[in-house]
Amino acid sequence: xxxxxxxxxxxxxxxxxxxxxxxxxxxxxxxxxxxxxxxxxxxxxxxxxxxxxxxxxxxxxxxxxxxxxxxxxxxxxxxxxxxxxxxxxxxxxxxxxxxxxxxxxxxxxxxxxxxxxxxxxxxx
Length: 124
Prior knowledge:
Elements: H1 13-21, H2 41-59, E1 65-67, H3 75-83, E2 88-92, E3 106-107
Parallel strand pairs: 1-2, 2-3
Helix pairs in contact: 2-3
């Protein structure tokens, strides 16, 4: 969830809370969706920690994961995410297997909006 963007094609807080109550795992995607490694460190830190705090306040429980906007991250951003209290971070696609050694750069599968809400982007 990008926490400082609501309305239009983005979900409302009521919709996000409804999904959370229904059992969906709600994670952070920053406050405003910048490329975190390309903005000043204090701003990146706020994007990461501020989003977590907003989600936790709205949902009433800890939020443990973040997906890096644009999958953009480096060692400094990964450290900020860990320091903010996240347990894991989604970093995009790689051949690396997920495990304890890469909790802040997890490989993932992207679901795409192609008219079928149950389809996923095929690996090529």
